[in-house]
Amino acid sequence: MKEIGRYAFAQSGVNLVRIPEGVTAISEYAFNSCSSLTELILPETLESVGNYAFGSCSALTEVTFPGGLVSLGNGAFSSCKKLAEVELPEGLVSVGTDVFAYNTALTRARLPESLTEIGKNAFNKDENVVLEVVRGSAAETYAAENGLTAALYEPEAGSSFLETLETPEYVCAVNRDGTVTIRRWRGNSETVVVPALIGGYAVRDIGPGAFSLSTNLRQVTVENGVRSIGEYAFAVCAALEKVYLPASVTKVADNAFASCAETLSVETAGAAWQPETPPEPIPATPEPTAKPETPADPFEVITEPEETEKPDEPAEVVKGEPDPADPAGPDGPETTDGPGPDEVLIEVFKDG
């Protein structure tokens, strides 16, 4: 699954949501008004969050935004009244109208140099939020034009990102050294040659999750010049049979080919490549076993049980005499069939 659908968990009682690697988009209103949600874990493969996807999640206190994020829709995190700080990643290009509006506890927001589109009322000017911006950036201009307090910061020494490069086949990050990192492949073919150049820039890295969940992909050839293959870069490519890596590739994440076929052949410049440790499968993409007709849900959602009143005991119950050796009584113990491996959609933890 690459996308979470509209209203998928809206107004539910979830308090922890962990979205698996491979998901690239969260649709509008997907988790809107989940008033008990306190913890949210987003995957590195995530590129976009739709309109009001997490709006009115009033208990949410902290969000770590992944490095692959490109856009946040209108009101995506609006009315999250306990959210005190946000730090948006380099690579983020646009945030919509009201994206963090009405967050009364918000006091700090770091906006990346890559951010070029900021919607109206993205931050409430009547609140005490300080925008941390890079000198000369679009974020600095936005703060000045909207009467918001701004504090300048210098990009981290290790930060190499300049802008986003998009082509019909790829979404890339342009690095300060004049190279690009592939963030997402947009193709759907069975074979692909990852080029040494995209848009005139040398390709340096294949980033986390860049080709993940490409179900039609069977063969990949990486041209010489690419240096590294990131985490889950080709994860859950079930049809992938062969990958050729050039001698220039010096680093391959152990889980780069997680949950691919066991027969997958990965070769580098004439020598077979093997990870240092066996690749770990992505836990959020279980294979259905008990009921194949029920697709597995890749989300781990934990909810707190609601208190319910104990039903009244019936006035008269006719049963056999209880056996002292059998506390369950003559009718046998009450049993509840547990869900099969493909049915574990929601885990409920109860006190005691």
- Provide the low-confidence segments as ranges: 276-296, 313-352
* Mean pLDDT rating: 79
Q: Into which percentage range does the β-strand content fall?
A: 25-35%
| Distance between the amino and carboxyl termini | 35 Å
CATH level-4 homologous superfamily of the largest domain: Ribonuclease Inhibitor
User: What is the N-to-C succession of helices and strands?
Assistant: EEEEEEEEEEEEHEEEEEEEEEEEEEEE
Alpha-beta content class: mainly beta
For this structure, the CATH topology of the largest domain is Leucine-rich repeat, LRR (right-handed beta-alpha superhelix)
CATH architectural grouping of the largest domain: Alpha-Beta Horseshoe
Number of helices: 1
Radius of gyration: 25 Å
Helix content: under 10%
Q: Which sheet architecture does the biggest sheet show?
A: 7 strands, mixed
* Form type: globular
Total domain modules: 2
Tally the beta strands: 27
CATH domain class name of the largest domain? Alpha Beta
SSE topology:
Layout (H helix, E strand, L loop, with lengths): L2 E2 L9 E5 L6 E2 L12 E3 L6 E2 L12 E2 L7 E2 L12 E3 L6 E2 L12 E3 L6 E2 L11 E4 L4 H8 L3 E4 L8 E6 L3 E6 L3 E7 L5 E4 L2 E2 L2 E6 L12 E4 L5 E2 L12 E4 L5 E2 L12 E4 L2 E2 L27 E4 L42 E3 L4
Parallel strand pairs: 1-3, 2-4, 3-5, 4-6, 5-7, 7-9, 8-10, 9-11, 10-12, 12-13, 16-19, 17-20, 19-21, 20-22, 21-23, 22-24, 26-27
Antiparallel strand pairs: 2-26, 14-15, 15-16, 18-19, 24-25
Q: What are the defining features of this structure?
A:
Leucine-rich repeat, LRR (right-handed beta-alpha superhelix); 1 helix; 2 domains; 2% helix; six-stranded parallel sheet; single chain; 352 residues
